[in-house]
Amino acid sequence: EISACLVGSEMCIRDSFHSLAADGTAIAGWATTGALLWSEDEGDSWLPGPVTTAFSVALFMEQLWLAIPDVGLAMWNRDANAIEPVGEEGVLLATADDGSAMWRVDPDGFVHRTLDGRKWQQAGSVGAAEAIAASRNSAFIVTATGVQRLQVGG
């Protein structure tokens, strides 16, 4: 559980998160309440975002990416506090530890990598994926039978 206070509010919340992403001092999470929460100070304070259901979240290229059921891959436009679909599938997301790449697993098991958020390179496919972690050139996908590693060059 994470205890946080909403900025501009005297009310503190205690919440659990389904999915978290971090990049430096920025943290984003999809809370069990359905709210998207955002922190720019390592979790000392939290800003509320839109209510949504996200399978997975990732911070990549200073942008929050979400994998949303029946929508697919989307980005959160913080200025408009709106979620904008990007026209790609995706149920699981992971960014490389150095922030140089983002990986996604599609509902059909195909795994893709992007270096710029626009062009996606297919790396292969897996069975039912449960979790993903990544480096720039490798994705490590947890399935019911173990961990599968997929690689791409560059």
Please provide a brief summary of the model.
It contains no helices and 17 strands. With 154 residues, the chain is mainly β.
Helix content: under 10%
The first-to-last residue Cα distance is 39 Å
Order of helices and strands: EEEEEEEEEEEEEEEEE
Shape descriptor reads globular
On the 0 to 100 scale, the average pLDDT is: 83
What does this structure look like?
The protein has 154 residues and is mainly β. The protein is 0% helix and 58% strand. The protein is built from no helices and 17 strands. The strands form 5 sheets. Strands 3-4-5-6 form a 4-stranded antiparallel beta sheet, with no helix packed on it. The radius of gyration is 15 Å and the shape is globular. The N and C termini lie far apart (39 Å). The model is unreliable at 1-14 (pLDDT under 50).
Topology of this structure?
Layout: E1 2-5, E2 12-15, E3 17-23, E4 26-31, E5 35-39, E6 47-51, E7 56-60, E8 63-68, E9 72-77, E10 82-85, E11 92-95, E12 102-105, E13 110-114, E14 120-125, E15 129-134, E16 138-143, E17 146-151
Antiparallel strand pairs: 1-2, 3-4, 4-5, 5-6, 7-8, 8-9, 9-10, 11-12, 12-13, 13-14, 15-16, 16-17
Structural descriptors:
mainly beta, single chain, 4-stranded antiparallel β-sheet, disordered N terminus, globular, 154 residues, 0% helix
